[in-house]
Amino acid sequence: MANIAIKNIVQIQGSNNLQIKYIGDALADLQHQLNQQQQKLGLSASATPPAPPAIAAVTVVASNGVADLAITDNNSIFRPIEYFAEYSTDPSFPVAKTHIVPMGGARNIRIPVFLGATPVYFRAYSQYSDGPASQAVNFGGATPTGVATGGAGPALGVGQLAGTATATGQGRGDDLVRDDSGVPAVL
Questions:
Q1: 119-138, pLDDT tens digit by residue?
Q2: Spatial separation of the C-alpha atoms in residues 15 and 19, rounded to whole Å
Q3: Do 75 and 136 reside in the same domain of the chain?
Q4: What is the pTM (predicted TM-score) of this model?
Q5: 62 and 36: one domain?
Q6: Which whole-number Å values give the CA distances from 140 to 93, 134, 157, in the listed order?
Q7: CATH number of the domain that residue 141 is part of
Q8: Facing residues of 14 across strands?
Q9: pLDDT (tens digit, 9 = 90+) per residue, 144-155?
Q10: In angstroms, rounded to a whole number, what is the distance separating the alpha carbons of residues 180 and 131?
């Protein structure tokens, strides 16, 4: 993540004027504290942070209408990472047939999917709140493997995206604001 930089901090701290030097020291301390906070929160004040590295794997076992999904992620990560699972009856994960399950910081979840013998496809990825999602990883590898979840229930309904996402595989989305009025949102 990009660190906050205070322009001319070295010159200010090197000033012969003691009061200006104290201001420089205070600015350097503030810079250090802000950089620590943005790292802890997974944010960046000066740039969009990069997507986290792709997770290593996603595994799914299912029975009686419940899918147990587990993510393996051995990457170096920051505490505020969030994980997302997606499932669909279409291996290309189109918006209308894909459901997004926010998992927070957990890497395991049980998802009720009562679709009997209908193949259900799963994938997962990670994201920091201030940046783009990692590359999605399918259960089964490059070509998703369908899972029969068992159990009886209705057909999968129309999916909806999360946050400001404009496509599946984006988690909360890439943009801070989704607003179609042309007027900036007030936060």
A1: 999 999 999 877 889 999 99
A2: 9
A3: yes
A4: 0.73
A5: no
A6: 14, 18, 24
A7: 2.60.40.10
A8: none
A9: 999 999 887 777
A10: 21
